[in-house]
Specification:
The complex is a heterodimer of chains A (174) and B (250). Chain A is built from seven helices and no strands. Chain A has 174 residues and is an all-alpha fold. Chain A has one domain (8-173). Chain A is globular. Chain B is α+β, with helices and mostly antiparallel strands. Helices cover 36% and strands 28% of the residues of chain B. A six-stranded antiparallel β-sheet of chain B has the order 1-2-3-4-8-7, with helices on one face. Mean pLDDT of chain B is 75; it is low at 113-136. The chains are: A mainly alpha (174), B alpha+beta (250). At the A-B interface, helix 1, helix 2, helix 4 and helix 7 of A face helix 1, helix 2 and helix 3 of B.
């Protein structure tokens, strides 16, 4: 019985899980804004990653690009299966069903407002913001996932944050 | 145009630095301040979810590794037997010839060769937990049960009944020991309602991420036994018991 041969793969997966799980969780949370659903979908992403881990090749893509492609597909499948009539942007308006206990009311309100503003952006800009702020990916990695050029990602990200800032301020004032 | 590009470039660099845990090198503009606020507002998974999912994924990974290793082990044993044992080699050749005859016989019965037809009696596929195996000499029972006691989930992946005894495979989580060495594990077993017997020492292998695979070798089930009750009574300093009841699927 030789278990040691695969030991390093298990160790690698554990290390990558520790590094990327919070990022994937945040990325999904931005989209669903609901803790139990976010936990389900995050689990699903890592289960798929585990099943396909043996086939992952670092020559083809970085692990983050590969993992966030899985996460994107899991989200697409989720909305396709459960809310076929609702546009993806509407997800951000769904209030949190189970707010985390550590979140204060003020923080929750800010998060809700931010999600509302994010939902008003073009779908592609939303995705860039999520991949940047949740996934902590660089512009080149985002470009690979979205199919945009790296410079275009930089431009769109900057403009998206400018818009978000403006609309966030308007909501707070109004 | 160029200054716009520079501003975007600077924003990206500063933002990447903030995401990596740093502070903006230059005085922050409005967008950078807002980005900082966005970073502070990000959601975070609870520790319970994070560790729970990690444990579950790693146990699943161990289960897959044990299953893969078991397949390799089974093939190796078969290869060794065929290479070194004249009787086994002869039996292997006879088995292959019998299998070919069975397949062709079945096809002939079904009229594939244009011969006589007739009623084809289809045997249902075998069901139940017994998979793989090579007849009465060796078989594997996939258990895949998890039992929680003393706050820890212990996973029994499979038992392999071979000619030399019965191997029992269990995985204990990282939280059961902090020492880099694998924790010792004690267990007892009984077939049907017989008196429990100590299972003896396990062969234990600790992974770098903390979980441990334990393999006990106990005697083959007596003829006519229906059920194995395997109870892991202690792992390291933590007392169980983690008790698994496995149907022997006879």
């Amino acid at each position: 019985m030789t278990i040691g041969r695969q030991e390093s793969q298990r160790e690698t997966f554990a290390r990558l899980y520790d590094e990327y799980m919070p990022k994937v969780y945040r990325y999904i949370y931005y989209r669903v804004n609901d803790t139990p659903v976010c936990e389900d979908l995050t689990s699903s992403v890592f289960e798929k990653a585990l099943v396909n881990f043996g086939r992952y090749s670092s020559d083809k893509a970085s692990f983050s690009t590969w993992l966030f492609s899985i996460a994107r597909n899991v989200l697409i499948d989720h909305y396709r299966a459960r809310r076929p009539a609702a546009p993806l942007e509407a997800a951000a308006d769904v209030p949190s069903q189970a707010p985390s206990p550590w979140e204060t009311a003020e923080r929750r309100e800010e998060m809700r407002r931010l999600n509302q503003c994010l939902a008003a952006l073009a779908a592609e800009d939303q995705e860039i913001v999520r991949l940047k702020f949740a996934g902590e990916l660089n512009n080149r990695q985002i470009a690979r996932i979205t199919g945009l050029s790296e410079s275009n990602v930089g431009t769109r990200l900057f403009r998206a944050i400018r818009k978000l800032r403006a609309s966030f301020g308007e909501l707070a004032d109004g | 145009m160029a200054s716009q590009r520079n501003e975007e470039q600077r924003f990206t660099e500063e933002l990447d630095g903030m995401l990596a845990g740093g502070e903006p090198a230059a005085p922050g503009g409005g967008e950078l301040d807002f980005a900082r606020r966005m970073i502070d507002l990000r959601a975070a998974p609870s520790d319970a979810f994070k560790t729970g999912l990690r444990e579950r994924l790693l146990i699943e990974m161990v289960r897959r590794e044990v299953a893969a290793a078991q397949r390799v082990s089974w093939l190796s044993r078969l290869k060794n037997a065929l290479a070194h044992d004249v009787v086994a080699r002869t039996a292997g050749v006879v088995a292959v010839v019998a299998l070919v005859a069975l397949v062709f016989g079945g096809m002939w019965q079904m009229g594939v060769f244009g011969g006589r037809g007739g009623t084809v009696v289809t045997q249902p596929p075998p069901t139940g937990p017994v998979v793989g195996g090579t007849g009465p000499a060796m078989r594997t029972i996939e258990v895949n049960q998890s039992v929680t006691a003393s706050g820890f989930a212990v996973y029994l992946s499979q038992i392999v009944i071979g000619s030399g005894g019965t191997e029992v495979y269990a995985v204990t989580p990282s939280g059961l020991a902090t020492d880099p060495k694998p924790p010792t594990a004690e267990a007892e077993y009984r077939f049907d309602s017989s008196t429990p017997v100590a299972a003896g020492p396990a062969t234990s292998e600790r992974s770098a991420i903390g979980s441990t695979t334990h393999i006990w070798t106990i005697p083959r089930p007596p003829d006519g036994a229906h059920e194995l009750t395997f109870s892991i009574t202690r792992v390291g300093d933590t007392a169980g018991p983690w008790t698994f009841v496995v149907s022997l699927g006879r």
